[in-house]
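Researcher: Go.
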Amino acid sequence: MLGRVVRRIAFLALAALIFVYAVFPFYWAVASSLRTGQALFSTDLIPREPSLANYAAVFAEQPFARNILNSLIVAAVSVGLSLALAVPAAYALGRVAFKGRVALLFTFLGVSMFPQIAVLSGMFEIIQQLGLFNRLLGVSLSYLVLTLPLTVWVLTAFMRDLPREIEEAAIVDGATPWVLIWRILLPLMAPAIVATGLLAFICAWNEFLFALTFTVSSETRTVPVAIALISGATGYELPWGNIMAASVVVTVPLVVLVFIFQHRIVAGLTAGAIKG
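Model: Structure:
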């Protein structure tokens, strides 16, 4: 009995430690964003005189609202294209037996292992030749290198775990491959699609290197680049309050999305883990 209580206390203490470790940086960013002047260097956990001046300055000194819209457009387009390509690809890789299927699947995985800097020069040439430099569509297409392998790999694993009896019954009823994918398998894949789509959205939302390379004007920059380019009046003293406020603004939508879709995310990531 005593050992069970000790294990319970140890588990709760470990969970509390992990929670504080994960949440405290975000809390400190929120607290710092509410401080101004010398109070930014204070170690108080709760701001004594909270102010929204940093938030007002972020939107007043640069087109930050436009940058947020740019990030939203780029992330949504890249995720939409990734899912539209990944669903039929997952069906082919997970259901259709053909020579080289495993090699192709591992090729998708291998592409995601390359560092961005390794493909940056080639991607730059492609974007420039297509006339998409300094355009949101060019940034969105470049993000497919990051989001498409992830979505294909996860959806293929999920597709393999779907009961084949459903597919066979639909084929007997005369369903074509496209009807089978979009009207039968797609609703069943909703948890996995939401989970992978959100992970891909977070990846595109936070991406920095491609956005920095393929955009040059403030009207086309995404929020990570806009935050990185925030500078003080002299260019040498960084306005940490503004940076913290901007970081909080771009983090809150992701937190909200995770809370809204948390059940589907868990269902999608754990689908196929247990078979009965």
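Model: Residues 272-276 have pLDDT under 50 and may be disordered.
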